[in-house]
């Protein structure tokens, strides 16, 4: 157990928090210890009944079965590459920007009345990671079709479209917020440059939060911006499956997101 804890502590802090959050929310639902009805997002339940935890849990419910393994692996790999690449020694800034992005996802999802933001949240992260990938980086769909990694978020949206208009509508806010994040912080050029975006001055974490996380300035020799996915391999995207929307009786809420990815090998 001590060895496992030691290995977990080696994971960058923001990546570790997101992965632990995903497992902590998803596993109890998979084991039927908690009903999805108690964790989905509802404006009425959050702001009128003050069930504030729903703002957190609605971002981390993954799909069940083997598909969740792919989703968790994709979340870990993408976040780890971002946090050890362009956000090296900037975990507090990354956490702060993720928080702002999450607020943006909730707001932009109002027209589609989403119950869960998991898919949009992951798509937002993938959009930023793909935009910061080195020029020429490639990815693969099921190991069959190879294409530039910067198109991966749009391929995921296309797969959502196959599941129906409602599925892609729930995912689209993640792509919108991800684009605004990349453009605002990193700039519009492929790969971006640190400080190149119009919102970069506001992207830094508050001083108290940075101090709490022990953030230090980026050291000389750190990876250049846009190298988050340098040396990465291919993604394998698992199939998706959908379930019925939640009902007040405690049935499953929203979509059971089955698409995910895992990066294997090297280019």
TrEMBL record:
Compositionally biased residues, Gly residues: 257-267
Record keyword Transmembrane present: yes
Entry-linked SUPFAM superfamilies: Rhomboid-like (SSF144091)
Compartmental location: Endoplasmic reticulum membrane
Protein name: Derlin
Domain of life: Eukaryota
InterPro entries for the chain: DER1 (IPR007599), Rhomboid-like_sf (IPR035952)
Family in the record: Belongs to the derlin family.
Membrane topology: Multi-pass membrane protein
Keywords, alphabetical: Endoplasmic reticulum, Membrane, Transmembrane, Transmembrane helix
UniProt-annotated stretches for the region Disordered: 247-267
Keyword Transmembrane: yes
Role of this protein: May be involved in the degradation of misfolded endoplasmic reticulum (ER) luminal proteins.
GO biological process, one term: response to stress
Any one GO cellular component localisation term in the record: endoplasmic reticulum membrane
Transmembrane regions: 55-76, 96-117, 124-147, 167-186
């Amino acid at each position: 157990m001590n060895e496992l804890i030691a290995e977990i502590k080696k994971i960058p802090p923001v990546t570790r928090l997101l992965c632990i959050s995903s497992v902590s929310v998803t596993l109890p639902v998979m084991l039927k210890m908690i009903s999805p009805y108690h964790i989905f997002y509802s404006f009425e339940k959050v702001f009128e009944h003050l069930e504030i935890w729903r703002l957190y849990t609605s971002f981390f419910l993954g799909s069940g079965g083997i598909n969740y393994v792919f989703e968790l692996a994709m979340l870990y790999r993408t976040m780890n590459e971002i946090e050890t690449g362009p956000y090296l020694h900037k975990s507090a800034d990354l956490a702060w920007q993720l928080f702002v992005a999450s607020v943006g996802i909730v707001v932009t999802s109002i027209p589609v009345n989403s119950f869960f933001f998991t898919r949009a949240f992951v798509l937002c992260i993938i959009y930023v990671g793909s935009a910061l990938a080195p020029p020429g980086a490639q990815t693969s769909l099921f190991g069959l079709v190879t294409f530039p990694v910067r198109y991966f978020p749009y391929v995921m949206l296309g797969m959502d479209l196959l599941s129906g208009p409602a599925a892609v509508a729930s995912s689209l806010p993640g792509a919108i917020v991800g684009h605004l994040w990349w453009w605002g912080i990193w700039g519009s050029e492929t790969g971006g440059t640190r400080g190149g975006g119009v919102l970069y001055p506001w992207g830094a974490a508050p001083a108290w939060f940075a101090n709490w996380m022990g953030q230090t300035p980026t050291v000389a020799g750190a990876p250049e911006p846009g190298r988050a996915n340098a040396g990465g391999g291919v993604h394998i995207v698992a199939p998706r499956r959908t379930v019925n929307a939640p009902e007040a009786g405690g049935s499953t809420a929203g979509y059971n997101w089955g698409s995910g990815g895992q990066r294997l090998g090297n280019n």
